[in-house]
Specification:
The chain is an all-alpha fold. The protein has one domain: Winged helix-like DNA-binding domain superfamily/Winged helix DNA-binding domain (Arc Repressor Mutant, subunit A). Helix content is 72%, strand content 0%. The chain contains five helices and no strands. Helix 1 packs across helix 2, helix 2 crosses helix 3 and helix 3 crosses helix 4. The longest helix is centred in the middle third of the chain and has 25 residues. The radius of gyration is 13 Å and the shape is globular.
Length: 114
């Protein structure tokens, strides 16, 4: 079972706006991925499986989930690009790139990003 507290604290490092819907969607997406980490490296797994599953759990659509996550990442990057750069994102990441890398940090490093 994914450590929801660790996911929450890790996401806060990149964007502190927890009231954005993208935050809760990202949390749920990471929970799903970390519960089955063998598939998260595949971009299609994220777009074809994760977004619909997150949407279903929030009564939304996959398109809204994707857009909300993109907005959350973009706003975080625009407001705090130094944190992104310090943690290996030399450019504004795509949703799949961000989600995959955060999952890797949590899975393999098992600590909060500095």
């Amino acid at each position: 079972m994914a450590d929801t507290n660790l996911i929450f604290r890790t996401l806060l490092k990149f964007n502190s706006k927890t009231n954005m819907s993208g935050f809760k969607y990202l949390q749920k997406a990471l929970e799903i991925i970390l519960d089955d980490p063998d598939n998260y490296k595949d971009k299609l797994f994220i777009t074809k499986t994760i977004y619909p599953e997150v949407a279903k759990s929030f009564g939304s659509t996959a398109g809204r989930v994707e857009r909300s996550i993109r907005t959350y990442i973009s706003n975080g990057y625009d407001d705090n690009s130094a944190v992104f750069h310090q943690n290996g994102f030399s450019f504004k990441p795509t949703n799949s790139h961000f989600i995959s890398n955060i999952a890797l940090y949590i899975t393999y490093d098992n600590h909060i990003i500095q």
